[in-house]
Amino acid sequence: MLDLMPIAFRNVNQLWAYILTETLKRLGLSCVVICPGSRSTPLTVAFAQQVPDIEAISILDERSAAFFALGRAKATGCPVAIVCTSGTAGANFYPALIEAKESRVPLLILTTDRPQELRDCHSGQTIDQWKLYGNYPNWQAELALPSPDMGMLAYLRQTIIHSWERSQTPTKGPVHLNIPFRDPLAPIPDGIDLSYFQSQFHPEDFFAGINSNFLIPTLVQTRLIASPLPTPQEWQKCDRGIIIAGVAQPQQPQECCKAIAQLSQTLKWPVLAEGLSPVRNYANLNPYLISTYDLILRNQQLAKQLAPEMVIQVGEMPTSKELRTWIDTTQPRRWVIDPSDQNLDPLHGRTTHLRVAVEQLVCEEVGDKGEKGDKGKNNLDYLDKWCVAETQVRKAIDQTMGTMEELFEGKAAWLLSQTLPPGTPLFIANSMPVRDVEFFWQPNNLGVRSHFNRGANGIDGTLSTALGIAHRHQSSVMLTGDLALLHDTNGFLIRNKFVGHLTILLINNNGGGIFEMLPIAKFDPPFEEFFGTPQDIDFGQLCATYNVQHELIISWEKLQQRLNPLPTTGIRVLELQTNRKADAKWRQENLRNFAADITI
What we know:
Elements: H1 4-8, H2 12-27, E1 31-34, H3 41-49, E2 55-58, H4 62-76, E3 80-84, H5 94-103, E4 107-113, E5 139-142, H6 150-166, E6 174-180, H7 195-200, H8 203-206, H9 219-225, H10 233-237, E7 241-245, H11 253-267, E8 271-273, E9 289-290, H12 293-296, H13 300-305, E10 310-314, H14 321-330, E11 333-337, E12 351-354, H15 364-371, H16 377-403, H17 410-419, E13 425-428, H18 432-440, E14 449-451, H19 462-470, E15 476-481, H20 482-486, E16 501-508, H21 527-532, H22 539-545, E17 549-553, H23 556-563, E18 570-577, H24 580-590
Parallel strand pairs: 1-2, 1-3, 3-4, 4-6, 5-6, 7-8, 7-10, 8-9, 10-11, 11-12, 13-14, 13-15, 15-16, 16-18, 17-18
């Protein structure tokens, strides 16, 4: 702090920026991403003075910077700040801010601005930044212009504290502060004598009471302060119930999986586990895990036999269109267990939201009623049918994938599920990778930490998000298609700031494989030019431009060797070249056949 004070009192802007950054440091901010620009100079200087307490990372491209910050916040569960100059710079934060809102990730967006007198008069690099992001922020405000008044500094301190809180409660998400500064922006005298103020300012008194632990109760604390949530009695009486472990990336995945397993074993209900749920990576916790539900439900006879009366959905609805259609058709009574304040039922069914984490659900209550282990024969028959179907379909998938020599892109997901080092952070890109994970990801006990941008399901920011997750973390992997990677190649500019290792498993099918699965694929033209959109990129040359390691993988054996062990530093691309149309045809012809001959 002593090093900060001389800078803080050089002008009013720097004093304002010091109060802002010092408050954030004391609240627990550990990382800020800063994009270059002039109007943000006071904040940039102040954050630079907070190093090493706050890691300050300079990233050129604002869109990439925001997604990198999103990745850091996903990995840590804590807010990350992003700073930019005035004008269109802040507009480039928008896609990542939307994703943060939809996937409930805490971000502090700090856009700097010109003062009010320089707006609406064609002053350079000035746009209307008030409510720039519409209704997406959890909370938003424009700060007052910097002032050396003690009351105004107290206002600034409390506004920053409130911003920190609102990024995390009642639901995590982005907060936007628009921060105007007048000249001079550099830490030079502005004509205001701050010497008296400096002598009267006592930091320890001013910042007293700010700490990083007062906000979010731990799981244990929450259990102590919250009333036990009564579990619906209907669950205990139902003979045909299922639990859907949906899209989720909890900070404590093993605890989440234990809670789901406890609920499953108490009720004797199967758990249909989405590939993007941690449940598949802690398979030994759950004896009733069903990973092949998408393929099972393609058999219409089985789908009818397995129709549920009740569904408990933990997290968001899985990606599977087959599952969604089945639920929509059978119209079971449903409960969604998730602490979100959002509506998590896109099917608009007979749904009750239990707005609590599954770990907080006192599952013991179900058993305490004398029902535990006393299910009727009908219930066990229903559970057995699911388990028999899972065993047979899983065996068929594993045999098919295990003997497949051709470079079918779906096998990459299957191989990752068995090969990655324990606990590896894995970022899964949107479009076909998330679907191949759902189809083929084998249940395992590796504790892989899967991450994804399924809030808005876009392909923007894929590389930058993955780098944010991998930064100062365990060696990480990204599974992506070529278009998602190309959409964010500016992310490679982070390489000199990046600490750690990221392996990018690139499925290069020269275009948008997801569109091959849609009816429009039959109409060419215009399909190939406007939907397939092949880019014909030599990724070896692209990687050389950014000084990133590249290797073309020509066999599954070579891929396995490269995935375990993983390097500890740097960025590398492992490129797997596949045939987009042949792979789409394989899916169309084979996915429905895995469960075609299954009888239960």
